[in-house]
């Protein structure tokens, strides 16, 4: 991948009396760590009180064995975060906990609301004071202030007021709830575990604890976990299915299931189609690790060109609080990738990646490959050009920084320094998912946003340039 797009968050929840729910949540968050490395949190309830621990850093940095031993209960929820709405500091770590007249309300959120300002201003007018800058606190406060008799009633009252993308885990002392927005933009699924149940942003979060995958929570649906078991309820009417296509391309782990498809198989199929569309004579097909690997394998098989790992990724380089020296910083991409010169020198390379965002990282990778002795570098991208910013929970650049928003493919090729460049077509991308195009949000490619976006947000990311904004209402 290009190291330039970041997913907002991963959520997990479990109701399993008699089980070590804190440790199970810890393992699940480990599996979901790719969805956010900025902060992590776990909350546990024993039916009487809720204990919450959260901090900045990755899962292994935040929780110790002693911490997990002190988090006792039969129900838990967890969260890993990468900020999109709200700055990067401790108060914005999740779950967010607020008191209510009937106990605690805790919320963990994956996504982004587009009406946060309106909701926040309404609460401020009612005298509410905020501790964070995240939209998650807005949701939690609205639930806590509800006059409904219980949390289920509060959810029925509050959720229809939210506009945007949201997959939520909500917990009180007695119940755990999972909710998906009516468009299903962000993923959320449910599994069974040892007489109880769990929810997770991706099925890999269920796999790691040995839970059995049941199904996705449907758009506009709520799953309630409590002493009576698992109950699904319609919370808002579903709209046009609009799962973020980048879950299939890059964000989710390849061993996760979405729309009843293993993402690994979809990505491999993308690579096979890419080989048909962008055939070129070469000696080696190599991925940009790790997310380019399945597509590169598919390309290699379809083209009959050997697969090789010409770049080795340092998997211990991620978000860090220790700043590198200027000399190390100048090494740039070499902090994360190192070329195997013997397998590159004198070779014609097909290099497969999932996307190009700004183009700077791709340019540096190609430069590094040429310095390692590559004879030719043919760049193949397993998605269409990324032209428009996201407003639903993905941290992308503003529009003018997206290289494909203002340059044609040939201009991008010259900028990154490749011998040839080919992007996968939208038709073959959709074909790889085995679902109709109408089941996805592809606004990053075509500018058709399924949820109306306020003008101030569009202006903030440069969406009103030249009057070319297309808003799809359904």
Automatic annotation (TrEMBL):
Matches recorded under InterPro entries: GATase_2_dom, Ntn_hydrolases_N, PRTase-like, PRTase_dom, PurF, PurF_N
Cofactor binding remark: Binds 1 Mg(2+) ion per subunit.
Top-level enzyme category: transferase
Residues at the active site: 9
Domain Glutamine amidotransferase type-2: 9-228
Listed GO MF terms: 4 iron, 4 sulfur cluster binding; amidophosphoribosyltransferase activity; magnesium ion binding
Keyword entries, A-Z: 4Fe-4S, Glutamine amidotransferase, Glycosyltransferase, Iron, Iron-sulfur, Magnesium, Metal-binding, Purine biosynthesis, Transferase
Source superkingdom: Bacteria
Binding site for Mg(2+): 291, 353-354
Spans traversing the lipid bilayer: none
GO BP field: 'de novo' IMP biosynthetic process; purine nucleobase biosynthetic process
Cofactor(s) the record lists: Mg(2+); [4Fe-4S] cluster
Entry-linked PROSITE patterns: GATASE_TYPE_2
Pfam families attached to this UniProt entry: GATase_6, Pribosyltran
Record pathway: Purine metabolism; IMP biosynthesis via de novo pathway; N(1)-(5-phospho-D-ribosyl)glycinamide from 5-phospho-alpha-D-ribose 1-diphosphate: step 1/2
Record EC number: 2.4.2.14
Sequence positions that bind [4Fe-4S] cluster: 244, 390, 441, 444
Known catalytic reactions: 5-phospho-beta-D-ribosylamine + L-glutamate + diphosphate = 5-phospho-alpha-D-ribose 1-diphosphate + L-glutamine + H2O
Keyword Iron-sulfur: yes
NCBIfam families membership: purF
Protein task: Catalyzes the formation of phosphoribosylamine from phosphoribosylpyrophosphate (PRPP) and glutamine.
Family: In the C-terminal section; belongs to the purine/pyrimidine phosphoribosyltransferase family.
HAMAP family hit by this protein: PurF
Designated name of the protein: Amidophosphoribosyltransferase
UniProt organism field: Candidatus Solincola sediminis
Encoding gene (name): purF
């Amino acid at each position: 991948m290009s190291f330039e797009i970041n997913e907002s968050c991963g959520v997990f929840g479990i109701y399993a009396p008699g089980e070590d729910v804190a440790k199970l949540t810890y393992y699940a968050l480990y599996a979901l760590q790719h969805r956010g490395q900025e902060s992590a949190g776990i909350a546990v309830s024993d039916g009487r009180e809720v204990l919450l621990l959260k901090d900045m850093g990755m899962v292994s940095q935040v929780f110790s064995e002693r911490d997990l031993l002190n988090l006792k209960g039969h129900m838990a929820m967890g969260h890993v975060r990468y900020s999109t709405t709200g700055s990067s500091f401790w108060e914005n770590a999740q779950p967010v906990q607020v008191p209510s007249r009937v106990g605690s309300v805790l919320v963990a959120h994956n996504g982004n609301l587009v009406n946060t300002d309106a909701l926040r201003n309404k609460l401020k007018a009612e005298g509410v004071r905020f501790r964070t800058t995240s939209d998650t606190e807005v949701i939690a406060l609205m639930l806590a202030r509800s006059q409904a008799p219980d949390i289920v009633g509060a959810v029925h009252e509050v959720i229809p007021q939210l506009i945007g993308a949201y997959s939520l885990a909500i917990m009180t002392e007695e119940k755990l709830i999972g909710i998906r927005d009516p468009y299903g933009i962000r993923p959320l699924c449910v599994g069974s575990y040892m007489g109880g149940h769990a929810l997770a942003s991706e099925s890999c979060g269920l796999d790691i604890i040995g839970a059995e995958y049941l199904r996705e929570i449907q758009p506009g649906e709520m799953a309630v976990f409590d002493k009576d078991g698992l109950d699904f309820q319609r919370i808002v009417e579903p709209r046009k299915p609009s799962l973020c296509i980048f879950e299939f391309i890059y964000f989710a782990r390849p061993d996760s299931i979405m729309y009843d498809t293993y993402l690994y198989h979809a990505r491999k199929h993308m690579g096979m189609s890419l080989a048909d569309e962008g055939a070129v004579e070469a000696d080696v097909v190599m991925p940009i690790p790790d997310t380019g690997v399945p597509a590169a394998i598919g390309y290699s098989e379809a083209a009959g060109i050997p697969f090789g790992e010409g770049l080795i990724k340092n998997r211990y380089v991620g978000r860090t609080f220790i700043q590198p020296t200027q000399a190390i910083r100048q090494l740039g991409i070499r902090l994360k990738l190192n070329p195997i010169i013997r397998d590159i020198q004198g070779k014609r390379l097909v290099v497969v990646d999932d996307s190009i965002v700004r183009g700077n990282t791709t340019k540096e990778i190609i430069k590094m490959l040429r310095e390692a002795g590559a004879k030719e570098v043919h760049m193949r991208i397993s998605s269409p050009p990324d032209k428009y910013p996201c407003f639903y929970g993905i941290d992308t650049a503003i529009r003018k920084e997206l290289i494909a928003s203002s340059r044609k493919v040939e201009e991008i090729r010259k900028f990154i320094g490749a011998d040839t460049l080919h992007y996968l077509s939208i038709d073959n991308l959709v074909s790889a998912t085995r679902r109709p195009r109408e089941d996805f949000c592809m606004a990053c490619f075509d500018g058709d946003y399924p949820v109306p976006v306020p003008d101030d947000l569009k202006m903030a990311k440069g969406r009103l340039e030249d009057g070319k904004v297309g808003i799809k209402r359904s």
